[in-house]
Amino acid sequence: MSLPAPNPWIAAITPYEPGRARLASGRTPIKLSANENPHGPSPAAIAMIRAHAHGIHRYPDGAATSLRAKIGFVHALEPDRIVCGTGSDELLQLLPLIYCRRGDSVVHVRHGFMVYPIAARRAGAEPIAAPDRDYVADVDSILAAVRADTRIVFLANPNNPTGTMISRAEVRRLHAGLRSDIILVIDQAYAEYCDAPDPDGGLELARTMPNVVVTRTFSKIYGLGGLRVGWATGPAAIVAELNRVRAPFPIASVSLAAAEAALADQEWVARCREANARERARLVAAIEALAPQGLGAVPSAANFVLMTCPETGPLAAETLKAGFEADGILVRHLPKQGLPHGLRITVGTAEENDQAIASLRRQAG
Ligand SMILES: Cc1ncc(COP(=O)(O)O)c(C=O)c1O
User: Do 331 and 229 share a domain, yes or no?
Assistant: First the structure.
């Protein structure tokens, strides 16, 4: 008897592992494992969700017309060149399906976001990991990894899980070094944590170049990870293809309404950005104070810090992670991403960080 068999390129996918949300003890954890905004969304977004409950028997606007108009206004972009998705994840996944043939390749940075190799494989394409340098994307190495069959280069800037960022000049140099038939996808999921509105010039490139797409999300600083709203902008031709294949109703009506309200409250966003910078500095200082014991903090432009740990002893990543958990704190260990010696810690509230720092000091003895 023969059984249903998946396509071999689908069977080759290692499924995405989300940051853990539960402690073995069942206690409510301090969750510093998924790069969420610990302050949550703007109160205006929560009020909008409540107010919107009466309308949920109607299908949402699949084209997200009103939200796109507001995103266009905030970022000085043409709404027609914006497409919204079920998180930016949906859009990142669709691009290889649209542009790669089986056997083509997709390039991403070695210590990068886990979704890129999954998205490549879903399309039957081969993901190629370009080595980074000191956890920072290396433009020369990305360009060297590009092959004749490369269709897409993914760059998260700031990058997850390292938190590092490359400059506007480096992003331009990367784009200038790519063939014009390769799409450069600049994933700006954490861009709002930077001070400038378009910190690496990605939006400018997406506005002016025929092969650059920028993705953004409401899951990070906007605090709406549970509602699944993301967007992309780029050339009209690419946006048209994304619209051709996206889900007909990718975003729930409540999510659309909440995202609009969250976008309108830029004061909340600015407060979260400032709190993050302040708390991140405190977390980094606490880690760096333990440099003599082998801990290090990779410079971060985002809402998390990659802590590097010694290979053995009480401060080895796996032991430290278990120690954090014993103190009720969830962090992210990423051995499958080539970081067996790294722990990624999301910047929490001041109180959460106090506890994380206390746990770290306790474990350091
Ligand atoms: C670099 C990067 N891009 C995209 C996303 C996904 O965001 P979304 O919730 O919009 O799918 C994440 C989430 O962790 C991320 O780290």
Answer: no
- Among the three residues 243, 264, 285, which one is the final residue of a domain in this structure? 264
Mean pLDDT per 10-residue interval, the chain, length 365 residues: 94 88 89 98 97 92 98 98 98 98 98 97 98 98 98 98 98 98 98 97 98 98 98 98 98 98 98 98 98 98 98 96 97 94 98 98 94
Contacts of 123 (CB under 8 A, 6+ apart): 9, 96, 97, 100, 102, 104, 106
Kindly state if the Cβ of 35 falls inside 6 Å of ligand 1.
yes
Q: What three-state secondary structure class fits 218?
A: coil
Output the six-digit token pair for 110: 């070695």
What pLDDT, on the 0 to 100 scale, is given for residue 21? 86
pLDDT, residue 24, reads 84
What CATH number is associated with residue 257? 3.40.640.10
- With tokens 């998946």, the residue in question is 6
In a domain, 3, yes or no: no
Residue 8 lies in a domain: no
CA 189 / ligand 1 centre spacing (Å):
6
Bridge partners (DSSP) listed for residue 129: 108
> Is there an atom of ligand 1 within 6 Å of 187 CB?
yes
| Ligand 1 pocket check for 77: Cβ under 6 Å | no
> Measured from the CB, is residue 87 less than 6 Å from ligand 1?
yes
